[in-house]
């Protein structure tokens, strides 16, 4: 193995968009609707959750596009916050991204895949199936960037085709349920309720991944031109798919059957197509979740690699293979993923990851204002559309959600803050 080797294979527009779509479309949209329906029964309010979540993601993508084009180095928030605020803030965000931002969602994706698979094939062991999926995909991505990229494009294309087909079939074949999608007088108050804010964290988690490509920005062809296009095109595709898919779930399936369920895609397919086709769709959804797990394993280790290039204590993580793959960082992320799989429940991991990730995307978007003030002459190949309105919308909605998460789920929020404290103590020890 060598260190700081240039990537042999560079990522183009198609692979970049596939990476963003794969990161976003997966665990969240196939699992979180059941949690939302425990507190919210209105079809209009539930769809507004997904519209508002999409608005947050698009505003974030516009802001990140400016930062990514101005600072096209891999590492994501670690890179941006180190330059905008202080290297210590960048390290904390990088540590969170490496440990929570990718390892936890990878575990969630594998756990959701296993949950769907065992609904179809009860004889399977969900724990060991999750472990096997993570290990096999790690082996593929550790061997070849080109093979990993091709795999990502193929399974993401299959995912989008299946979802569009599911949406179309649901519209044509469903027996409409007794749920109101037009706003009712009581719905407007729910949009400002604590239940809406807490449910928005599930939706925000489902949309997380819109910034996935910034973690591998250094491996993107013509980054100043392609990074904004990848971020905005990938996010726009997913917003359309999410709103349409959740409409079909609610339109075709009784709320009572969906509320509290993790495998909402399987429940909807079973109700829509019958037992045999429903089981087939459940297995297809399980297969499509491979794309989500694969994309996390592909992108996440690049953060730890960049941190290793900058920090002596993490120097081993900067070591790459002959073809430029950070294998040691990838194995580190895989070990953390397996730890989450063996020790945590699905909902606890989701809330824990959602709180901490939202905190650092909030700081990053706020950094857009700071960077424009401190470095007005910095070359900006792309400027955020709608500035300053779009970052203000993102900060307002994200900050509102963070406050309600802290109040409603203090345990998971505390674990998230404890992760930051552990990382801070690591910095202090390294500085000594």
From TrEMBL:
One of its GO terms (molecular function) is L-amino acid transmembrane transporter activity. It comes from Hymenobacter qilianensis. The keyword Transport does not apply. Gene3D superfamilies: Amino acid/polyamine transporter I (1.20.1740.10). Its main location: membrane. The chain crosses the membrane at residues 12-38, 44-67, 88-113, 125-143, 150-174, 196-218, 230-251, 280-304, 325-343, 349-373, 385-406. This is Amino acid permease. It is a multi-pass membrane protein.
